[in-house]
Amino acid sequence: MNLLKQIFIYGGTVSLIFLLSCEEETVTLIEEVIVTDTVTVIETDTVTVIETDTVTVIDIDTVLIGFAVPETYLFTRDGDTTVSYSGQTTRLKMAKEMVSALKDETKTIAQLLAMFDHQEGASDFSDADLNASSKQVKNKTGNNGTATNAAAIRADLEAWMTNQVDSVFPAWSNEASKGLAGYIQEAGGGSTRYVNQNGLENNQAVNKALIGALVADQVLNGYLTPAKLNSGTNEADQAAQTKVDGKSYTNMEHYWDEGYGYIYGLAADGIDPVTTPGSNDIFMLKYIGKVDSDPDFAETADELHRAFREGRAAVVEAEFEARDAAAQHIAKTASLVIGVRAAHYLKAGQTGLAATTPDMAGVFHDLSEGFGFVYSLQFTLNPETGAPYFSREEVMEMLSKIYPTSGGMRGFWDVTQSDLQEAATTIATAFGFTYENA
Amino acid sequence: MKNNLLTLCCFTALFGAALFLSCSEDDNVKLDEGSQIDQNDSTDDQIDGDTSDSVDTTANEAVVGEAFTRGAMLTNWADNIIIPSFEALVDNMDSLSFAANKFTETPNQENFINLKQSWLNAYLTWQTVAMFDIGKAEEITLRNFINVYPLDAQGMTTTLLAGDYDLTSVNRQDEQGFSALDYLLHGLGNSDEEIIAFYTDDTNGLKYKTFLTDIVDRMHSLTSIVLADWKESYRDEFIERDGNAATESVNSMVNDYIYYYEKFLRAGKVGIPAGVFSNSSLSDRVEARYRGDVSKELLIKSLISAQDFFNGVHFSQEDAGMSLKGWINHLEASGETNNIDSLINNQFGLIHLQLENLNSDLGQQVEADNIKMLETYDFLQKNVIFMKVDMLQLLDITVDYVDADGD
After folding, report:
1. pLDDT at residue number A382
2. What are phi and psi of B47, to 5 degrees?
3. What is the pLDDT of residue B406?
4. A192: which strand partners?
5. Percent over 70 (pLDDT), chain A
């Protein structure tokens, strides 16, 4: 940090010398440079300020919000951290074990379903801490819409698990072909994939569907909504800084952090996951990284994390408008991640099918991931409309195009390139990017 | 965020400096100048080093003076490099086929040794065509059927013993080709006698013989199909598609070339065994692992072929025709001269020097002193940057592939 300051001073000095020695026409430009400096310096300084509980509001037109936003997800009160999301980390771990069990052909449907609706103390997982936990995945899956929808969503996931056990596990050492489940290897001695009779990897469908049904739904349609954050006496408690009994945090702070935990709960460094990437995550966080590494969507990871910090700092200050603005920013960015990956995998499948000798295992793998991401679109949230970018009905309609199973059609064995391109383009357009960017 | 902050600082510092330097000349300073400085800076980082102690390997001055056209370059590639390389490979496949049949008819040591030699000859010649994944070779995914390694030895054995196999299935790509032969000729036992015994075994000998000739026949037929297609029709199509669009021959071939260099030469032959992409080194991932002591020879052949292609050197001869090097010279003659061709050739020279430090068995090299393998990888990597970044920028060619998703 000292070095940083030195560079600033150096930069400032050079500019200053320049200011003294140059003609008037360029002064406008210099001002822009100085303003940039100033804004950053304010942020850097105020990080320290917040830790000592004396937040000073500096009113300069380039500062958009009237309180300090820390550079990392580090929030304290009286020297204790106020951030806690262990329940979310637990659920992500459970979901991850369940997904990997879908590739263990010795598992029974009862074992898989028990992992989904785990009961405290049952030996469903390899991790004893998970077995001892009272948390479960199923009751947090798709539960922010109507009860009818929640039941339908859980039934979808269970149907893929059942199909895996009934059709794919018994065919584990058979070669897959159109209409027959089995294994199929990617070209060039690549990975072996296990697909159902229609070319779908059920494990991928479950994995990617949970990014929407568990993660996005809990964050965007649950914890970060004003209805949830303001429930009970939360607003008054926050204004009075009234903590939850026996805890260092307020109820509202905790809700915000629970939302945070669904995305960052498996990060190697939950405090600073952008500067220190790396995680065991196979859900949202993993794909934030993938989208971020695409130059068309650079800075996505940073933007999303910044919005989480802004909103959390706003909660501390009981600045609810700023909090909701940050939540909307999160909704937009997290939804974009799902949209980009959905379009990306459909396009990858289309490109794969266009080859003279298509690598069908590679195509199936891309399309299975795409299938799950398309499914997840129903859990996105467009902050401008307050609705998902695609409704459940629209999603199911789209899935029937990219994975056609009626009239004797065999899913990914029969899908056409034009249907894939059309679906990917529809998604891209809704999020404001293009098929080429996908 | 810290990174951004630092970038911002650098930006500010550089920007300030740029203004400082330029203010005495005129005040027409654009805002994006700072980012340009940034770019130049990073390019400098990449080019940095090794330019001083250059090893001159630019033996071919034949192209100087010859006018550059895409058509001339494509013609040189097709007539003097690609087709003669495939002709040599098919010749080697004829011999391999003959030797395999002779051995299966009379499985003795003399025939076995001849067969092993034929395998090595063909494997070395394969290194000269492996980069030409275009036309029929791309269509039938030749490389995926000829040289996937590591071999799935267990899967191959199961397939072989089961008998009723379909070698055209993608599922069988890692159970055939040169690596399968490597195992069948060197990996079944510790001595020639032990290995030959598999083919004379009363129970399974016939199955081993049949599988051996089946995979040789398949390699023979696939390479013959590609050669025939080049000669009968694809040569003309390849040369006629001489525009500068992404789908035309020059862009496709240059992309195929760099893709081969990056994925199969740099990563496949060196990086993966050295553990560059994994948590630990993987000495059993080297090419021809069962034979062992020829893995470096195969790498050298591949490297020479890549460099010869860059310089337009005719297959198995000293002469050279129009090439990427000639194209670079042509472009640099009328614009900024950065000697990108020398940069690339010098780097090829440095790689060759580095290879002198390696054991002829790259697997043993990984086990004994993997640092030298990692160094080799770093030398190879520099030419990825020179070709994929500097050269493609000059040639105005866009990279048409991305790294795989990885899951």
Report:
1. 98
2. -80, -20
3. 52
4. A185
5. 85
Give the 3-state secondary structure of residue B23.
Answer: coil
Rounded to an integer, what distance in angstroms lies between the CA atom of residue B9 and that of residue A36?
10
The closest alpha carbon to A165, from A124, A125, A112, belongs to A112
For the residues of A72-115, what is the DSSP string, one character each?
SS--EETTEE----HHHHHHHHHHHHHHHHTT-TT--HHHHHHH
What DSSP string runs through B334-367?
A: TS----HHHHHHHHHHHHHHHHTTS-SSHHHHHH
Q: Which two tokens stand for residue B280?
A: 């630990």
H or E element at residue A193: strand A192-195
Amino acid letter at A93?
Answer: K
Residue indicated by tokens 């492996």: B130
pLDDT one-digit tens code per residue, A52-65: 333 444 333 334 56
Alpha-carbon distances, residue B117 vs A241, B120, B186, B407 (angstroms): 82, 5, 12, 39
Return the DSSP state at A185: E
Largest Cα–Cα distance in chain A?
Answer: 81
Quick check: ipTM above 0.85? no
B317 and B59 Cβ atoms separated by less than 8 Å: no
**Who among B6, B149, B173 is closest to A187 (CB)?**
B173
Q: Specify the amino acid at residue B64.
A: V
Provide the CA A260 distance to its chain's centre, in angstroms: 10
Provide the pLDDT confidence category of residue B361 given band limits of 50, 70 and 90. very high
Closest CB to B13: pick one of A14, A26, A72. A14
Digit-coded pLDDT (tens) for B302-333? 999 999 999 999 999 989 999 999 999 999 98
Closest Cα in chain B to A187:
B170
Write down the residue that tokens 């001073």 correspond to: A9
Tokens standing for residue B56: 């001159």
Span A61-101, pLDDT tens digits: 334 567 899 999 999 999 999 999 999 999 999 999 999 99
Closest approach of chain B CAs to the CA of A358, in angstroms? 9
DSSP class of residue A225 equals S
Q: Are A322 and A67 a contacting pair, CB within 8 Å?
A: yes
Q: To 5 degrees, how large is the angle CA A369–CA A375–CA A380?
A: 115
N-to-C CA span, chain B: 28
Residue A6 near chain B (CB below 8 Å): no
Which residues in chain B are closer than 8 Å to A72, comparing Cβ atoms? 1
- Residue A23 burial by Cβ neighbours in a 10 Å radius (0-12, 13-18, 19+): exposed
